[in-house]
UniProtKB/TrEMBL annotation:
It is a multi-pass membrane protein. This is MFS transporter. The lineage of its organism: Bacteria, Pseudomonadati, Pseudomonadota, Alphaproteobacteria, Acetobacterales. The keyword Transmembrane helix applies. Keywords: Cell membrane, Membrane, Transmembrane, Transmembrane helix, Transport. The keyword Transmembrane helix applies. The chain crosses the membrane at residues 20-41, 53-73, 82-103, 167-192, 226-248, 260-280, 292-310, 316-334, 354-376, 382-403. One of its GO terms (cellular component) is plasma membrane. It is found in: Cell membrane.
Length: 409
């Protein structure tokens, strides 16, 4: 509650806010539990890092395909129904996977379909549940409520892989996914009991969403700060966050870790993000947010190269954990200033449209995952990890050249 100061009591008393925080945290933890458990199962069955990348990419693919339209849908449909329905769908999907695993007939392609369904639900997170958080807190406390929600997201993204590794190690894939199903059903019941009223429902128009994207793009290309924001967002998701699909094969095939310790490896980056996020929330960083955005992304890319070098050495686990936690610091700095730039550089009339563009750029994440998987055969696991970092730094160099050219105009 250090982040909230004197606003803590008012936030805790806001109708529906605490249940929304709890539901978001639990659902996010189960998402990352499923990601790790699915990767472990796919690697065990196929022994292929590329197949792991395909299954992992399926979960984030809906962000690329539908992310731009989810804001329009959440404005035209009751957001509480979207959140409750999404939790029920996630529970049904996870429960089906768990039962198929329990009777011994589960195949990786079935996990891929379940991942697509889960990813479609995840694409509603920002425009539906996160927006309900801000509305429940009220205009005066909305930013603080979202800040706490973001901290909980970092914490549960750290807890999810740990729970996934532990559940997989002791209960197998069936136990991990059935746990996810039960918790998602519980969260659906929790959110369903919230009193929520959505005052204004807009007419649903997907063509209008496309027009908003076009308008947002036309606005963004005239402002070099927004061009750089979108460029860094693409690079960070394409070359940075896509490294996560390599962690399970690295943990199993290179470091020979147990499922729980692979979860520890996957939790290192979000743990660093959590600590950095708390620090930045208490003591905002001085200077232009664009520099911090670029600096955070550059740090993450550099960490990937360093981890690839360290990973070839004996007793590499502890140094790699430290490096990935440092990469999490860069990730948090990048994420916090991404939103800040949209809020400070965009007038209110264009903010939703620019955020739609940012969502589309985030959708490059599954493309990066598939590319990372494809690099495993020619370069090896550590070579693929290094290639992601090098590609990211090369892209940042191009953007730096663009920024210099704009300053000299």
């Amino acid at each position: 509650m250090l982040i909230l100061g004197g606003s803590a009591q008012r936030l805790l008393k806001a109708p529906g806010l605490v249940p929304l925080w709890i539901a978001g945290g639990a659902a996010n933890a189960m998402l990352w539990l499923e990601v790790l458990a699915a990767a472990l199962f796919t690697l065990q069955v196929t022994r292929s890092g590329f197949d792991v990348a395909l299954v992992s990419a399926a979960r984030s693919l809906p962000l690329l395909v539908t992310g731009a339209f989810m804001g329009v849908i959440s404005d035209a449909t009751n957001r509480k129904r979207i959140v409750v329905g999404g939790l029920v769908v996630s529970a049904a999907s996870a429960g089906t996977v768990g039962m198929l695993a329990a009777i011994g007939v589960l195949r990786p392609w079935q996990i891929g379909i379940a991942a697509l369904i889960s990813g479609l639900v995840y694409a509603t997170e920002m425009p539906a549940r996160r927006r309900m958080v801000a509305e429940s807190a009220g205009p005066a406390l909305a930013l603080r409520a979202v800040a706490v929600d973001s901290m909980m997201s970092y914490a549960t993204r750290c807890a999810g892989p740990l729970l996934g590794g532990l559940a997989y190690q002791y209960f197998g894939l069936a136990g991990a996914f059935l746990l996810s199903a039960c918790l998602n059903i519980g969260m659906a019941i929790l959110v369903a009991r919230i009193h929520y009223r959505q005052d204004l429902l807009r007419r649903l128009s997907l063509l209008g969403a496309l027009q908003d994207l076009r308008d947002g793009l036309a606005f963004a290309v005239r402002r070099h700060t927004l061009v750089l924001l979108l460029g860094v967002t693409i690079l960070t998701n394409l070359f940075g966050y896509s490294y996560s699909t390599l962690l399970t094969p690295i943990g199993k095939l290179v470091l020979d870790l147990s499922p729980f310790m692979i979860g520890v490896l996957a939790a290192a980056e979000p743990a660093g993000s959590l600590l950095a996020g708390i620090f930045v929330a208490v003591r905002p960083l001085p200077g232009h947010p664009l520099r911090w955005l670029a600096g955070g992304a550059t740090l993450l890319f550099s960490v990937l190269i360093a981890a690839a070098i360290v990973g070839r050495m004996p007793h590499a686990l502890v140094p790699m954990l430290v490096l990935f936690a440092l990469g999490g610091v860069g990730s948090a700095v990048y994420n916090i200033h991404q939103t800040t730039i949209v809020m400070t550089e965009t007038p209110p009339a264009f903010r939703s449209r620019v955020m739609g563009l940012v969502t589309v750029c985030i959708g490059s994440w599954p493309i990066g995952m598939i590319a990372a998987g494809a690099l495993i055969d020619p370069l090896g696991l550590m070579g693929a990890l290094a290639a992601l970092g090098i590609g990211g730094l090369a892209g940042m160099a191009v953007l730096a050249g663009y920024a210099r050219s704009q300053r000299h105009r």
